[in-house]
Amino acid sequence: MLFKKKIEIDSSKIPKHIAIIMDGNGRWAKKRGLSRNFGHKEGSRVLKKIVRASHNLGVKYLTVYAFSTENWQRPKDEVDQLMKLILEYLRNAEEELKDHSVRIRVIGNRKGLPAEMQDEIERVEANTRNIEGLDLVIALNYGGRQEILEAVSELVAEASSGKAVEITETALAKRLYTKDIPDPDLIIRTSGEMRLSNFLLWQGTYAELFFTNVLWPDFTEEHLQEAILSYQNRQRRFGGV
Ligand code: FPP
After folding, report:
1. What domain count does the chain have?
2. What is the CATH number of the domain that holds 25?
3. Cα 82 to middle of ligand 1, angstroms
4. pLDDT at 5
5. What is the pLDDT of residue 93?
6. pLDDT digits (tens, 9 = 90+) for 92-107
7. Of 112, 131, 148, 199, whose CB has the highest number of CB atoms within 10 Å?
8. Which of 180, 104, 94, 177 is nearest to 135 (CA)?
9. Does residue 126 fall inside a structural domain?
10. How remote is the CA of residue 51 from the centroid of ligand 1, in Å?
């Protein structure tokens, strides 16, 4: 008989903020002779499951990399399909996640997104603003370097307008998209790639990194627990001893 492996995680040491680079949709689809867009669709389905699982485990913030500033370089059809999928996700999320207390927020350069998407983001953020439970932070048209540059430009503009600004880590962090979100404790990347690809560069400085060969559409709650277990077995020293 087959027994499901039981993963013993310490429920008192759940990472408060998990961030995920959901990679491998294209390869997952290719392996099955399906279109890349089909892979993204599966990816979106898996995201819903992982949001619920994260909430059940007691995670407070889940940030997911849905579309990077570099992803515009993909073929137009794939970009269009991804936008459609994300729009659909935002439209249905509230209803589908209503029993899971999920507040939805979006980080990234909004002005570069289609108007319809910007409106939908505003709607869903406003409608879920007062929900307390899990904050699902969707990184959309997001780039870490661009985010830092925007924050620096803001500081420079304020300084040149004569305002007294201190150039400190806190001052810069306050001008990032994530200003009221704690830094991630754990960053997971699926599909065997081991890099950050411009994701949460400032915020991820002391995050524990977890890489798995599992392709995102195959990622399950058990894989999430495995990542958390690995996190719990590490010693976080934040540069100290
Ligand atoms: C990387 O896989 C994945 C993306 C660029 C998009 C992530 C999007 C989703 C998981 C689905 C939609 C998201 C939301 C919020 C509804 P890849 O295409 O680079 O895979 P590959 O490296 O195997 O080609």
Report:
1. 1
2. 3.40.1180.10
3. 8
4. 63
5. 87
6. 988 888 777 999 999 9
7. 199
8. 104
9. yes
10. 16
| Integer-rounded Cα radius of gyration of the chain | 18
Which residues partner with 68 through β-bridges? 142
Rounded CA separation 35/162 (Å): 55
Residue 167 lies in a domain: no
Q: State which amino acid sits at residue 24.
A: G
Mutation probe of ligand 1 site: the residue of 34, 40, 49 with most atoms within 8 A of C-beta = 40
Q: What's the gap in Å between 79 CA and the centre of ligand 1? A: 11
With bands split at pLDDT 50, 70 and 90, how would you rate the model's confidence at 4? low
The pLDDT value recorded for residue 96 is 82
Q: Which structural domain range is residue 28 located in?
A: 14-143+182-232
pLDDT of residue 150: 97
User: Does the CB atom of residue 227 touch ligand 1 within 6 A?
Assistant: no
pLDDT over 80 at 227, yes or no: yes
Cβ–ligand 1 contact at 217 (below 6 Å) = no
Which residue, by CA, sits nearest to atom 8 of ligand 1?
66
In angstroms, rounded to a whole number, what is the distance separating the alpha carbons of residues 186 and 121?
A: 26
